[in-house]
Amino acid sequence: IKALHQYDCLRANKSSSAWGLEVRVPFLDKDFINVAMDIDPEWKM
Fold first, then answer.
1. Contact 25, 9 (CB under 8 A)
2. What Å distances lie between residue 26 and 9, 40, 42, 43, CA to CA?
3. What is the Cβ-side half-sphere exposure of residue 2, based on CA atoms within 13 angstroms?
4. For 1-45, what is each residue's pLDDT tens digit?
5. In terms of pTM, does the model score above 0.90?
6. How far is 4 from 28, CA to CA, in rounded Å?
7. How many domains, the chain?
8. Among residues 23, 29, 40, which one has the least CA distance to residue 4?
């Protein structure tokens, strides 16, 4: 997760830019990820 922005987000940005789209990645906030990772796996879908 620490290096996700360097690879997947960069790739998504290049791919979307090639088609003239602007993509946002709202779920990379560290606090959001920490909360999501602390949820009991049985509670997740």
1. yes
2. 11, 22, 24, 22
3. 0
4. 677 667 787 888 888 899 999 887 767 778 888 998 999 999 987
5. no
6. 9
7. 1
8. 29
